[in-house]
Amino acid sequence: MYSTLNLLHSYWAYLTLFILLVAVLNALNGYFNNKEFSLTKDFRISLFALIFTHIQIVLGLLLYFTSPYFASWKAGGVMGDSFLRLVLVEHPFINLIAVALITIGWSKHKKVLEAKPKFKRIAIGYGIGLVLILLRIPYMIWFD
């Protein structure tokens, strides 16, 4: 089960990062070019990015608890080992924060009616979330 989840989490990450990047760029484009917020395009792009990140975090949490690295908590020394700290502490914690910020950006955009503040809230929430995710990806084991 671990290897299947690991593979799914790894490949789904590409889709998630791509749609998040598209959502951030779309929001920045809408904000700086004073575009109208479209329910057919802008809303859907942002919604798909939200859905993809939530699916990714669920896959990640399932992977976290089925990972062979998880047993390292019993052995101790997780915080003293930089690799284990990245995989068991930094990556999951920062990504939970990133998904929370993305969700907040989504929730905040729904509370305003004007296009420019909608784009701004999405750009900020999704943008910070994307940067955090990119900073804490364990690139050395992405496809173990």
Please specify the SSE layout and strand pairing.
Blueprint: H1 2-32, H2 42-66, H3 72-75, H4 82-110, H5 115-135
Helix pairs in contact: 1-2, 1-5, 2-4, 4-5
Please provide a written account of the structure.
Helix 1 runs antiparallel to helix 2 (42-66) and helix 2 (42-66) packs antiparallel against helix 4 (82-110). The protein is mainly alpha-helical and 144 residues long. The chain is elongated, with a radius of gyration of 17 Å. The chain contains five helices and no strands. The model has no long low-confidence stretch (mean pLDDT 91).
Question: How would you briefly describe this protein structure?
Answer:
The chain has 144 residues and is mainly α. It contains five helices and no strands.
Question: Sheet bearing the most strands, described?
Answer: none
What is the H/E string? HHHHH
Mean pLDDT: 91
Going by helix content, strand content and strand pairing, the class is: mainly alpha
Strand content: under 5%
Number of strands: 0
Keywords:
5 helices, elongated, 0% strand, 144 residues
